[in-house]
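Can anyone check this?
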Amino acid sequence: MKFLSDIRLLILGLWLGAAVFFIGVAQNAFAVLENRELAGTVVGRNLSLLNYSGIVIATILILTSLLAAARINKLWLWVERFLLLLLGASCAVGQFVIGIWIASTKAQMGRPIEEVAADDPLRIQFNMLHQYSEWVLLAGMVAALLSFFIISNRRFGATAATDTKADIYDFSKEFKI
């Protein structure tokens, strides 16, 4: 089951890397592109891809957590599942609630966002929704990171219960078949 755990860690690590990379893409898109509407479109499409992949990955990881549940500490297993559920829920809320609400607000503006006055109610609503989107993505990233640590610190096999003071740097056990 260690192999499955390693695959799960890889998938979760890839999503975390994509989320961190997305932050850089978003900042650079607004720094490089002169048209802020175009930059917002690029960022929005990348965020959609990140959210959809987060939903799929969270679902896959929750389902695969059911495979070896007999030999794993139940408390940490349920904490892991809750965090993965939080990851999927934050991606779903970001995509299907906040994202749709942002699109609706932009459509109501009828012109580029930078042309709308800062004290306009639609601009205030857009800024508020944008901040909610950032917080929801951050919550998903923290949940994914905590899940990553829980999965990576899991012990497997009969020695996991009895050998609590094993040498953690003894890699000879990792490669035995």
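Reply from J.R.: I decoded it. Residues 158-163 have pLDDT under 50 and may be disordered.
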